């Protein structure tokens, strides 16, 4: 079970969270102006990387906030955790961030 | 005396406390401190089971959790019976009942041994080869046959009466394994003040020190030092000692599963104690001190009872005071077996010969053996053994420098001890996803790069010398505490007086000169995999160790190949002539040792399996004899049968009463969300398909929510309580989904909107009063609300009081009748409900359940999300196109509705179905086709989504989603069923009062 | 028209048959007025002054004064609890004080019931369903948080070293109570 750092409450057991898919996929401001292909990309296409993945979590059974996490999908190492709306932080050159 | 083979003194058992137990119906005596294995050996019993495939007689091989053979069933009755327990781990107690497995009618005479005669047909991959043809034979012959033969042991036939608990725990440093390395680590880590857990799978902590007779630590015997160390640890408040606790699984972020066995070793245990406890431990740092497992040498006929690991024999002699035989032959590739030979000899076992695979063994241990008069045969192998139920002789062969083996001699014995060296236990490290590296010098895979915050100490990372082990443990323990943030870990060096046994060994099948297809050298005892099986698999083209494993099943038994994996790997390496590390290693997976279902289930059984959510009206409904159904976690009254009524009769009565007079229905489970803030209406506009700007306070609107993909997600009525306050209702099952979806948009897409969401599902009890007389029932109960048609029209909401408590009173109808939904604070729900029932008595008020609710709504063609929709249905598909605010520029899902596929004319659309025979009620889920006589597979046009008997219409009604359904209205289609096709006519999906006249009253 | 003062607590019946033990004692807390306050930072101070207890700014903390307690639930969310008060009056007074602010106030007095668990084994009992580290270092007195207990969401707070309050939605309350009781079984 992952130990997920909530930006507000600190590290908590995965049980308290719900997963929210890939992060930084913003809803287009004016969907009507988007062509069909781009809209389908927005709806369905995700990067699914082997390695560091920016993903959304919600501290559902906690403070209720959505936030983002950089998690390595191979090792589960969490390199960063930051509130929704903030840009994806840059990682240290080794790709591991500052936090184990 | 506790058995013929018990030494008069020595060991850690208490000879003054005899313990009686039974094995296969025969009574034996052991002593306190015995395992079932040591007690049986003390009584001269080696034969304890039959092998899985060939039913070969098998004996005790090891003294620990790596035991492949000695699996027994334990338990005096069917409820307490547990199969596949390792005799080497079972602590005996007065009255213990154990039995051997995999034999019939008896262990000594077993009919299944006939499989031996068929051995040529049962070779590697026999499942895949043998049961292929003819196809028809699979169901009738092969499958029942395999099912009967499959599996080890028998499952208990009765529910498990024991308690199991699960508990979360946290520590700074978790030390796994309480041998010398683990104890030293725990001592060092706890000295810093860190919270330390020390767990060990054995009843007694100490590991290898419990059977160490000669080495001295800090001038003390190993036993005295161990006792002192454990007493010191126990005295520290920051240390938790966990004996009988197996760390079986490692999950991400240092979350480990530990199973503590609490009552299995007790006679007449306190019933309030759990049998086992699952410790779910989150450790900041983990120290692995899991030791090493002795590896057998593989040679022909190596599976007879009486053939065991040299170190195991040493443990039985030194720790349990048990002599595993009278005359032993040792077959070894390392020095540790010499140490065992010396200890056994001093305990009273004659050592007939030591066959050493090595060409020129030497050093202190070999010298000592020679000095003790033991005959050491250099460059010598075992070419075979004899003895039916117990070994009686060993054939030795001389290994020439060219690798050839020539027969040399036959030695009589009742015990053959083997040692191929030690394999570090890297199972948990590997589970933690750490990378293993192969050490050529040690012939072992050792922990390499870590993924988790852990470190290995002692034998599990290839350090075998006791002094080095203790100092490595100390360094690991203090290092772990420092990594947590504790300072002041004092470096401490232990002084040990004793000799190292080195790290020689052998991996694979020892040379034996025999034809592998005629001899049988067992690699995996538990799954009966031989040298020949592995070679056959390679000949048939399997190269990857993962494939060889699955094809031969080597390492796939309940012991996960603890004693066999390295030898299988060595054999593949030998056969393919490929270096061992290139052959690769199979994956270690949890659990480390078999773990009960009970401990995984824990408290989640019976009434506590899931929360059972009940409404405030629940107990009243129970008292009325309601039948309940589960809707998500809620219990909802399904119908209220009167004496003698079945469901059909009850529903017919409830429907009639509601249409003709008044019914009362508990709608408390509906999801409710309060949307508050000056941008509340703006949020509603963006989330719902409808337009909300124009809805006045005091009015209600039916709303539909789509997913961003354009499909219907939820629906419900929404009341505007104030300009900045909406009271949303959702479906029962959709409550949390809708709240999460709205929170998502508010928090992440539109954080600038001044609007907040609060779940009020449980704040309100909702009492739905429906029917032409509903107003008459409620009018005398309310205060400050005018229920009249003029001042409170259909789809309006008023706040006031009912029965003296505050209410939000909705005039709304899911039945097509005049109706009200009375929201009152939940704590008043029961009282208000009863007051309304009392007031309605004169009008024949009738409680109805969810079934009647469904019939009434279906008569009106109201959809139910999840029944008429399945995540692929657009608003237009299910007849809700009218809810879309045409003037709205955007709402969630709008853009998707403009995709071509979402507007195609042949989409499945909601229609009504009337069976041509009005008495026939369709089955929900049944397919709709054009021509029932077409060949299978038929072209399916759609399916029935709802189907009921309508008492009001005195006929069946159904809703269906049918391809291009709206253009087919007026035509006939067919619903093919096992008893023949049912003709149906497609109609508008509204069966009763299409104009809605009954609402406007 | 009858005036109903009969407020039902979902735990009433379970609590009446509990056989408690000194190492971990279960009890039902009396009903209180409970309001959920959410809002923009400017409204938070106003709400605190009107309530008489400032909204804790530190995450996962509660503040109490007299019979009133403000629990931090999230960065813009507080649960305001007032023992022995009528929720409607409290709501009206706060609502009036907050006029003009950006905020949300919702009466949730009936949404949940509350349980106390006290005694030297209270934390151990809670850990039978709650994954938090409940040592006093990581879960000190004065801390509160929503978390999990078994399969239910609870609001957990610690007014004293060996005392926990559990606020739980009504329909989950009996499950939580029974699971706690089951865990206590080891000591019974
Ligand atoms: Zn949080």
Give a written overview of the molecule.
The complex is a heterotrimer of chains A (100), B (1001) and C (188). With 100 residues, chain A is mainly beta. Chain A has a domain at 1-25 and 49-87: Folate-binding fold (2-Layer Sandwich). Chain A has one helix and six strands, in the order E-E-E-H-E-E-E. Chain B has 1001 residues and is of the alpha+beta class. Among the domains of chain B are: 166-292 and 424-497, FAD/NAD(P)-binding domain; 617-669 and 763-870, Gyrase A, domain 2, CATH 3.30.1360; 670-760 and 873-897, Aminomethyltransferase beta-barrel domains (Alpha-Beta Plaits), CATH 3.30.70; 904-1001, Aminomethyltransferase beta-barrel domains (Elongation Factor Tu (Ef-tu), domain 3, Beta Barrel), CATH 2.40.30.110. Chain C starts with 11 loop residues before the first helix and ends with a helix. The longest helix of chain C has 15 residues, at 170-184. Chain C has a five-stranded antiparallel beta sheet with strand order 1-7-10-9-8. In chain C, strands 3-4-5-2-6 form a five-stranded antiparallel beta sheet, with helices on one face. Chain C folds into two domains: 12-30 and 111-188, Gyrase A, domain 2; 32-108, Heterotetrameric sarcosine oxidase (Alpha-Beta Plaits). The chains are: A mainly beta (100), B alpha+beta (1001), C alpha+beta (188). Zinc ion is lined by residues 6, 8-9, 59, 62-63, 65 of chain A.
What CATH calls the topology of the domain at 166-292 and 424-497 in chain B is FAD/NAD(P)-binding domain
Give the N-to-C terminal Cα separation of chain C. 48 Å
What is the topology, as strand order, of the major beta sheet of chain C? 1-7-10-9-8
Helix content of chain C: 25-40%
Structural Rg of chain C: 17 Å
Which regions of chain B contain 5 or more consecutive residues with pLDDT less than 50? none
For this structure, what is the CATH homologous superfamily of the domain at 166-292 and 424-497 in chain B?
Answer: FAD/NAD(P)-binding domain
Secondary-structure arrangement, i.e. CATH architecture of the largest domain in chain C: 2-Layer Sandwich
SSE ordering of chain C = HEEHEEEHEEHEEEH
Strand residue content of chain C: 25-35%
Largest interface (CB within 8 Å) is between: B-C, 56 and 57 residues
Structural class of chain C: alpha+beta
Hetero groups: zinc ion
What name goes with the CATH superfamily of the largest domain in chain C?
Probable tRNA modification gtpase trme, domain 1
Strand content of chain B: 25-35%
> Number of DSSP strands of chain B?
51
Mean pLDDT of chain B: 94
User: What shape does the CA trace of chain B take?
Assistant: elongated
